Amino acid sequence: MFAMVSSGSMLDYSVARVEARTPVRAAAVGLAVVLTALAAQFTIPLPFTSVPFTLTPLVVMLTGAALGARLGFVAQALYLAAGAAGLQVFAPSPTLPPGALRLIGPTGGYLLAYPIAAFVTGFLAERGWDRRYVTSLASMLAGLAIIFAGGVSWLAISVTQSLPAAVATGFAPFVAFDILKAAAAALILPGAWKLLKDTL
């Protein structure tokens, strides 16, 4: 059975023996949206930058890898749509704008990069990168790089008017912790694959 889906995502492998695959996939996407929203609630505002510390990138990358490129992208696009519609799914903040305005606020670049990061992480996972630690870590770092690129670029354009200033406020304070989060996420995926192969 594993050989039949060796080029697919963890979700593909999980539903390989399920007849009603569409509802299972839809439920998995919905769960990814909920997990992203929950992760956003664990936020720590920092006094020297408008960008808070959150667990959201970790969940974006993990769910992207688990769902695969297409569904990972869809899940994060739905998360952004829910936030834009006014649902309280974004990181709580007294200074960042609510709803759709959050997408053009100081952290909008990070948020809009989520679907792309999930797609890339999922694309690599579909090709087996999430089954060994080294390649799993590489896929997590690729997704993280996309999130930082989007966030720092938008900060430079809309807030700081300077790339060095954007790096200082939107990258430098977070990169070490986010790399640690990526390293932790990379540990989870190969273990999850082993568990799936042992139980299915």
Largest sheet: 2 strands, antiparallel
Give the percentage of residues in beta strands.
under 5%
CATH architecture annotation: Orthogonal Bundle
**Mean pLDDT rating:** 91
- Give the CATH level 1 class: Mainly Alpha
Structural class: mainly alpha
Low-confidence stretches: 1-5
C-alpha Rg (nearest Å): 17 Å
Strand order of the largest sheet: 1-2
Number of strands: 2
The span between the termini is 9 Å
| Count of spatially separate domains | 1
Shape: globular
How much helicity do the residues have?
55-70%
Order of helices and strands: HHEEHHHHHH
Q: How many helices in DSSP terms?
A: 8
Kindly identify the CATH topology.
Answer: Arp2/3 complex 21 kDa subunit ARPC3
Describe the structure.
- The chain is mainly alpha-helical.
- It is 67% helix and 2% strand.
- Strands 1-2 form a two-stranded antiparallel ribbon.
- α5 runs antiparallel to α6.
How would you summarize what this structure contains?
With 200 residues, the protein is mainly α. The chain has helices at 10-14, 21-41, 56-67, 69-84, 108-126, 133-160, 163-170, 175-199; strands spanning 43-44, 53-54. It has one domain: Arp2/3 complex 21 kDa subunit ARPC3 (Orthogonal Bundle), CATH 1.10.1760.20.
